[in-house]
Amino acid sequence: MNQKSRISTDIDFEIDGIAHGYLHVPHSTTDSAYGWIPVPITVVKNGGGPSVLLMAGNHGDEYEGQVLLMNLLRNVSPRQVRGRLIILPGVNAPAVMVGQRVSPIDGGNLNRLFPGNADGTPTQMIAHYIDSVLLPMVRYCFDFHSGGYSLEYIPAAHLVVPAEPALRREAIGFLQAFAMPNSIVIEGLKGDDQLLLGSCRKHSVGHMSTELGGGGAFSVEAYRAAERGLPRLLRHVGVLVDDDSGEPAPPTQFYLRQPAHDLLYATEAGIFEAFARLGDVVKEGDIAGRIHFPEVPWRVPETISFEKGGRILARRAPAKTKIGDCVFALGSLRDGRPWAKDETEQA
Fold first, then answer.
1. For FRET with 112, which of 30, 61, 132, 247 sits at 20 to 30 Å CA-CA?
2. Region 260-334: CATH code
3. CA-CA distance, 331 to 261, in Å (whole number)?
4. Which are the contacts of 127, defined by CB distance < 8 A and separation ≥ 6?
5. What sections of the chain are H helices per DSSP?
């Protein structure tokens, strides 16, 4: 069904210059019968050129990307732009306001609700607006995430590798231009039709994401790398004027992550005593940690071991854990070409 979005805005996407405003997400409550939820948006346009959608706050407890885009929208000039930037620094605004992964209004995890629903909950309406209004306008979409409250990542950009060779080359180019210290290429992801990624693929929009720290904190290391990388990325896709003022992209280390095999989960509820640190290289059979039981302190702890080797890309931040919580995410080092699809391709 081709539904028309119920979200409105006073922003004109076609006028040159810079405009700040809000998306108006209709939301009727006891306190505000005819009210709407404000989702901040900035549009910077200057003549012809590519259109790029930049988003952060997809999850409200991920902060580095929000600061990155707020600094950008306050400092960028239309003279620097060749085309159009559409910037949503806190796209899931209700979640951003309370610093939670999901919306406090409807429990909506924005990045699990695409393509959305025009007549659904507020989070579903936001997903539908992105899918039906914004993505058809743009050629590229870059979505800045962190690990949130529950996970801490090594500073990284990541992408789910496309199947088509030309799109793979383009996507790897994003990673190499952004040039975080680490780049994570994901293969075998299930359910990507519910992600922003799935909507980008549907609209033939080039996509890249990040994992800039996490644990509910603010990673200075990850932020500074992203701050240096964002102008390079935008010049790479042609939406920022190339003025030769930026530093060349440093090398990035590629890792392959396969979600079906590289995630380690807690098998009991309790306090997780980690035996490994973020960034460590581990082997199959190494002890990952032990789960202690404060209600029965004399009980023997539950030992969890790594089921395969690799580098620890992410770890659970809170020590309190329960069955089904991810405690570690691993990746395998990729020397040379960062994917294994077509032996004729070069990174």
1. 30
2. 2.40.50.100
3. 10
4. 110, 113, 114, 115, 116, 117, 199
5. 64-75, 93-98, 122-129, 165-178, 196-202, 220-236, 259-262
Angle at 97 between CA 77 and CA 9, to 5 degrees: 50
**What gap in Å lies between CA 269 and CA 321, rounded to an integer?**
6
The answer to whether 36 and 23 have CB atoms below 8 angstroms apart is: no
**Residue linked to tokens 């009991």:** 268
Task: Check: CB of residue 268 under 8 Å from CB of residue 291.
Answer: yes
For helices 220-236 and 165-178, angle between their N-to-C axes, nearest 10 degrees: 130
User: How many other C-beta atoms are found inside a 10 Å radius of the C-beta of residue 342?
Assistant: 11
AA identity, residue 217 = A
Q: Can you point out the beta strands (E) in 269-309?
A: 270-274, 281-282, 287-292, 302-305
Cite the residue boundaries of each domain of the chain with CATH code 2.40.50.100: 260-334
Instruction: Put residue 56 in one of left, alpha, beta given phi > 0 → left and psi -120 to 50 → alpha.
Output: beta
Query: Which alpha helices (DSSP H) does 218-258 contain, by range?
Result: 220-236
> Tens of pLDDT along 18-77?
999 999 999 999 999 999 999 999 999 999 999 999 999 999 999 999 999 999 999 999
Whole-angstrom distance, CA of residue 238 vs CA of residue 158: 21
pLDDT digits (tens, 9 = 90+) for 210-250: 999 999 999 999 999 999 999 999 999 999 998 776 778 99
Q: Which fold, 8-257?
A: Aminopeptidase (3.40.630)
Which burial class, exposed, middle or buried, applies to 154 when counting CB atoms under 10 A from its CB (0-12, 13-18, 19+)? buried
